[in-house]
Design a protein that fits this description.
Blueprint (H helix, E strand, L loop, with lengths): L1 E6 L2 E6 L10 H16 L5 E6 L34 E5 L2 E3 L1 H8 L2 E4 L4 E3 L13 H9 L1 H10 L3 E2 H7 L4 E2 L3 H13 L3 H14 L4 H13 L2 H12 L13
Parallel strand pairs: 2-3, 3-4, 4-6, 5-7, 6-9
Antiparallel strand pairs: 1-2, 7-8
């Protein structure tokens, strides 16, 4: 139901329950938790991509099975845990309810034109318990988040991009997410990870506290910075060479 594959430095975790629109039951949640544990422990995996097979990201919790359990890692197996490396959601089709919450857990989201995002659980009185009420406002702002949460309406791909809920719209989200992951993986990873963590650790703090957090994280990667400065002084990267175009 959940597979783990790695192509070079990018690991792909795929949910494959075609008969249930990739909805998550207790067994699938356990497998998702195991997959993210494997990603974190895989030193050769620098970026993780979460994907749903067969043209659907995920319909969220399996309301027919209704067997999920509240664990320290989250109802869906991983949404209350952290990983130290960048993550990307590759979204096509329905990304709704708990499926949306899983996508919000990821750092970035790449979607197809077919993507539909929304808190569809509103119709059945199912609460958002896998981070949706906390992560969605941080990404799209309070007003838009409350609109999605309270009305349960569908947000299509283009509107999601306008809101910042989706970073990019591409023809093939899995391919696009892997390509983005390969771009991230080519950079010095110590600084990628320390800058990423500084962003999260600074959320909700004052600017003074945030700057102190940034400074602390930055100090941990100064050796990497000095090495990079030496490469630049030697002629590497002049004129923006090596900077992704998009």
């Amino acid at each position: 139901m959940v597979s783990y594959d790695r192509e070079g430095p990018v690991a792909t975790i795929t949910i494959d329950r075609p008969d249930r629109q990739n909805a998550i039951d207790n067994e699938t949640a356990s497998e998702l938790g195991d997959a993210w544990n494997r990603f974190e422990a895989d030193d050769n995996a620098l970026v993780g991509v979460l994907h749903g097979a067969n043209g659907t990201f995920s319909a969220g919790a399996d309301l027919k099975a209704m067997d999920l359990e509240d664990t320290p890692e989250g109802w869906l197996g991983f949404t209350r845990r952290e990983v130290s490396k960048p993550t990307i959601a590759a979204i096509e089709g329905h990304c709704i309810a708990g499926g949306l919450e899983m996508a919000l857990w990821c750092d970035l989201r790449v979607a197809s034109e077919s993507a539909t995002l929304g808190c569809f659980e509103r119709r059945f009185g199912v609460p958002l318990v896998d981070g949706g009420t906390q992560r969605l406002p941080r990404i799209v702002g309070l007003g838009r988040a409350l609109e999605m949460i309270l009305t349960g309406r569908a947000v299509e791909a283009e509107e999601a991009r306008e809101w910042g809920l989706v970073n990019r719209i591409v023809d093939d989200p899995l391919e696009g997410a892997i390509e983005m992951g390969q771009v991230i993986a080519q950079f010095p990873q110590e600084t990628v990870r320390s800058d990423r963590q500084a962003v999260y650790d600074g959320l909700g703090t004052s600017i003074e506290e945030g700057l102190a957090i940034e400074g602390w994280h930055g100090s941990r990667s100064l050796d990497t910075a000095y090495e990079g400065a030496d490469r630049f002084a030697g002629g590497e990267g002049r004129g923006g060479e090596g900077v992704p175009e998009n």
